[in-house]
Amino acid sequence: MTRVARRCLVSGRVQGVFYRASTQERARELGVEGHAINLPDGRVEVLMVGAPEAVEALAAWLWEGPPMARVTDVTCEAVPVPPGVSGFRTGWG
């Protein structure tokens, strides 16, 4: 199976509105591994590793987020697939 990785930075009202937990839930539904972590500047960093179509689906979902979120920008970049990524975690950066 071909795996790809993307790192996205999500801006807007994305902290304190269940954005990380909702991203984790959606990632698990899609079979994507990685993380969603709060950054000190108010953004959320999302690392996505998985099948190309699943990663693309999660990247598109990042613009929606949970109902209380207000996403104003999502910037993504392709990154090398990091070794040892397993599951999808949430936390602080």
Notes on the protein architecture:
This protein has a single domain, classed as 2-Layer Sandwich (Alpha-Beta Plaits), CATH 3.30.70.100. Helix 1 (19-30) runs antiparallel to helix 2. By secondary structure, it is of the alpha+beta class. It is globular and about 35 Å long. The protein has two helices and five strands, in the order E-H-E-E-H-E-E. Strands 4-1-3-2-5 form a five-stranded mixed beta sheet. A hairpin with a 5-residue loop joins strand 2 (33-38) and strand 3.
Strand order of the largest sheet: 4-1-3-2-5
Number of domains: 1
CATH architecture: 2-Layer Sandwich
CATH topology: Alpha-Beta Plaits
- Order of helical and strand elements: EHEEHEE
Give the beta-strand count.
5
End-to-end separation in angstroms reads: 30 Å
Short account of what is shown:
With 93 residues, this protein is of the alpha+beta class.
Provide keyphrases for this structure.
93 residues; alpha+beta; Alpha-Beta Plaits; five-stranded mixed β-sheet; 2 helices; 5 strands; 24% helix
Q: Layout of SSEs?
A:
Elements: E1 4-13, H1 19-30, E2 33-38, E3 44-50, H2 52-61, E4 70-79, E5 88-92
Parallel strand pairs: 2-5
Antiparallel strand pairs: 1-3, 1-4, 2-3
Helix pairs in contact: 1-2
